[in-house]
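help with this record:
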Amino acid sequence: MKTTYEEFDAAAYLDNDEVITEYLSAAAEDPNPDVFVAALGDVARARGMAQIAKDAQLGRESLYKALSIGAHPRFETIHAVLHALGVKFVVVAENRD
């Protein structure tokens, strides 16, 4: 008997602002920038890619491309998407004890 599994989709679990904030914060801590871009894509899909693209004043296809694996979106794009999602970057001093 062969066991099959559904592919995990984080977007299915990003259903409230607190979860989204924690998810993006954890992704931002990862030294690999692709992790944050992928997480941003998950959140955009959870909220509705077409609406996020509209709110960010980007084309839907452009947004998909900017948040795809291996993409290197411009800071302006990241900032626009974060604004459309209702979240923002916060910079804090790192504890270096």
Observations:
- The first helix runs from residue 17 to 29.
- The chain has five helices and no strands.
- Residues 41 and 67 are 5 Å apart (CA to CA).
- Helices lie at 17-29, 33-47, 49-55, 60-66, 75-85.
